[in-house]
Design a protein that fits this description.
By secondary structure, this protein is α/β, with parallel strands linked by helices. It folds into 3 domains: about 110 residues, Conserved hypothetical protein from pyrococcus furiosus pfu- 392566-001, ParB domain (Alpha-Beta Complex), CATH 3.90.1530; about 110 residues, no CATH class; about 60 residues. Helices cover about 60% and strands about 10% of the residues. Strands 1-5-3-4-2 form a 5-stranded mixed beta sheet. It holds the Pfam family RepB. This is ParB family chromosome partitioning protein. Belongs to the ParB family.
Length: about 300
């Protein structure tokens, strides 16, 4: 079914043909909710992919939008999923994926920051990033400046609504000078930029910034070195998931092989079928199968 204006077409795509372009973490509760909704009412919106044929001619696709829906289909044991297929470059696919994450009601702050950082690394100007993501230019400019300064804690505070972007920029401008930071905080309070709960949240962010450094989730590299326990746990969990997936895939392949072997045994016990194979000069099979179909590994 073609979509209007040649934008793309809706097709059924095998799950194993789709590679994830911009993977992101998702909470178990959120994911369970997606699976439950799809199981009860079906897929309301198709995923979006772009074709990337392989050198050997195999059809492959990059996922642009809909990672949660794709993984939910995998969890439900589905083999295919409805997908809007569009022809775009890798760069445009990445921007579309980033824009989709920004548009979500509950995007993770680090995802947005990571996306903007990648656009900066690709050489985009702040105005171009603003236009492509739909974000306000001043906001984009401030985010980019804070990214350059490595102010991850302040950036997350802005994204979660803990402090306004202009206050974060002022605090970042004060650097590591505690008196200057406190003066910036006082100025924000007196100007009305910070009031009540926001003031308390801003103080908490500043305390963490002073104690643990500007980067969230990790201690300052000037005080500590090596791998954090959080990183180790996450790496271990990822490896467990990978190994579990490999075991499941191996078991599934083994089951399919057993079905093929049993089917061949039954077919080859039929003399008419064997005569047909001989007439077509199909008198051999891969050694791997022959050893399982016949104990002596003989041919037809």
């Amino acid at each position: 079914m073609s979509t209007p204006n040649g934008i793309g077409e809706i097709r059924m795509i095998r799950l194993d043909q789709i590679d994830i372009l911009n993977p992101r973490e998702r909470g178990s509760r959120v994911f369970e909710g997606i699976v439950k909704n799809i199981k009860s009412i079906g897929l309301k919106k198709p995923i979006c992919v772009t074709p990337r044929p392989q050198p050997d001619g195999e059809a492959k696709f990059l996922l642009i939008c809909g990672e949660g829906r794709l993984k939910a289909y995998q969890a439900l044991g589905e083999q295919e999923i409805p997908a809007l297929v569009v022809e775009v470059t890798d760069e445009d696919a990445f921007i579309m994926s980033l824009a989709e994450n920004i548009a979500r009601r509950q995007h993770h702050p680090l995802e947005l920051l990571s996306g903007i950082r990648q656009l900066m690394e690709k050489g985009y100007t702040m105005r171009a990033i603003s236009e492509k993501t739909g974000l306000n230019y001043y906001y984009t400019q401030s985010i980019c400046n804070l990214l350059r300064l490595g102010e991850e804690r302040l950036l997350i505070a802005v994204e979660t609504g803990a402090i306004p972007i202009n206050v974060a920029v002022t605090i970042a401008g004060a650097g590591d000078d505690d008196k200057a930071v406190q003066a910036a905080l006082q100025g924000a309070y007196e100007s009305g930029a910070l009031r009540g709960r926001q003031l308390a949240l801003a103080r908490r962010v500043i305390e963490k910034r002073q104690r643990h450094g500007r980067t969230a989730g990790r201690t300052s590299t000037t005080k500590h070195s090596g791998v954090s326990t959080t990183t180790l746990v996450r790496t271990y969990q990822d490896e467990v998931k990978r190994q579990t997936a490999l075991v499941r895939k191996a078991e599934f392949s083994q089951q399919k092989l057993l079905l093929v072997v049993e089917a061949l045994r039954q077919l080859l016990s039929d003399e008419n079928f064997v005569n047909l194979l001989r007439a077509e000069s199909l008198t051999s099979m891969p050694k791997y199968l022959a050893e399982r179909v016949w104990s002596n590994g003989s041919h037809v």
